[in-house]
Amino acid sequence: MKDLSELQGQIDSIKAEIREKAESVARNSKDLYEMRKSFLDSKQGKLSALMKEMAQVPGDQKASFGKAVNEAKQWALGFFEDIDKKVREQELKLRYESEKIDISMPAKKKECGNLHPITTVRNQLIDIFTGMGFSVYEGTEIENDFYNFTALNTPQDHPARDMQDTFYLSPEFLLRTQTSAGQIHVMESTKPPIKIVSPGKVFRSDDDATHSPMFSQMEGLVVDEGITLCDLKGSLDMFVKQIFGEQTTTRLRPSYFPFTEPSVEVDVSCFECGGKGCKLCKGTGWIEVLGAGVVNKKVLENCGIDSEKYSGFAFGLGLERIAMLKYGINNIKMLFESDLRVLEQIDD
Ligand code: FA5
C-alpha cells in the first residue's frame, strides 16, 4: 500500500520536472509537442500513468488521490498551453525577421536573352514574304555539283564557277555556295505556280570585312504564266519598304548570273540619307542589296518545266548584308563573334 503523501510527492516532482524541462528543452513547437506527449499521453504519459497507482492507494484515499492527479493534469494542460503560445509567437517573430523584404533595395535584374540579329532578320524576311503568299523551302547545306552548278546553267569549265570559291567535299559533293541550289529541287518536285523563299547557310572560301566563309542567304523563286521583270521589281519594292522603311525604293542595274536572263543587281535608295549621299552609301545615294533576274529558260527546261508556257523570276540576298545595313555594323565578323556587348544592343 502507498501512502497518499508519498503519491503527492510523486505528483510534485513530475510538476517540477515539467517546469524545468519546458524552460530548457522545449525551444520550438515541435519539441514542446513531444514533451507534452511524454507527460500527458493517455498511454505512456507520466501523469496519466499515475492513475495506475490507484490500486496501491487505500480505499478511503482513492477519491482524494484521483482528484489530485486530475488537478495535476489540468495544471499541466494549462502550463503547456501557455508555453506553446509563447513558443509559437517567438517562431512567428523569427519567421517575419528572416522573410523580411527591404523594399528600398535595388531590384535583382533578370538577364533576358534576345534573338541573334541574323535570326531576327531571317524571321522578318520570312514574315514579309509569307505575307506576300510565298512558302518556305529549307534546302540542305551539302549539295552535289549538279544542283549547285550544272542544273543552274553553270556546267564544268563554265567561267562563272570562278565567281564563287567552292569548298568541295569530294569530286561530286560540296558545301553549297548559294541557296539557288534549292531552286532546282523545288522546280523538279513541284509544278508551277511556284512561289517560295529558301533561307539557309552557304559557304565560300571568302574572308574580309564584308565577306565570311559561312554566311546566310535567302533565295526567292516565282514561276508561273506571264511572270516578268516587272513582277520582280514590284515584289522587291514591297519587301524593301517593309524592311528599310516606306521611303525606300529600288533600282535595277544590269548584271550577270548564268541562271537568270536578264540578270540584275538590285540597289535600294539609301535609307540613312534618303538618297542625298552619305558614308553608308559611299556618296552614291544607293546601296547594293541583292542579285536577281528572270529565270533562264535553260534552267526551267533542266527541271522539266515548259519554258514556252511558264516564266519566272528569282533573287538571292545575303542576310548578313541586310543585318549590317539595318543595324549599322561595319564588320561581318561582329555577327559571328558572339560578343554580348554587341548582341545586347541589337534587340528588334
Ligand atoms: C548569288 O549567290 C546568287 N545565287 C544570287 C541570285 C539568286 C541571283 C537568284 C539571281 C537569281 P552573289 O554571289 O552576288 O549571288 O551573292 C548574293 C549575296 O550574298 C550578295 O549580295 C551578298 O550580300 C551575299 N554574299 C556573297 N558572298 C558573301 C560572303 N562571302 N559573305 C557574306 N555575304 C556574302
Structure description:
There is one protein chain. This protein is of the alpha+beta class. The chain has 11 helices and 9 strands. It folds into 2 domains: 4-99, no CATH class; 117-343, Bira Bifunctional Protein, Domain 2 (BirA Bifunctional Protein, domain 2, 2-Layer Sandwich). It has helices at residues 4-24, 29-40, 46-49, 62-98, 117-131, 145-148, 181-189, 229-244, 297-302, 319-327, 340-343; strands spanning 135-136, 142-144, 173-175, 194-203, 214-224, 250-257, 260-269, 286-295, 311-318. Helix 1 (4-24) runs parallel beside helix 4 and helix 2 runs antiparallel to helix 4 (62-98). It is rod-shaped and about 130 Å long. It starts with a helix and ends in a 5-residue tail after the last helix. The mean pLDDT is 90. Residues 178, 180, 204, 206, 211-212, 215, 217, 219, 257, 260, 290-293, 314-318, 320-321, 332 line the site of adenosine-5'-[phenylalaninyl-phosphate] (FA5). Residues 178, 180, 204, 206, 211-212, 215, 217, 219, 257, 260, 290-293, 314-318, 320-321, 332 line the site of adenosine-5'-[phenylalaninyl-phosphate].
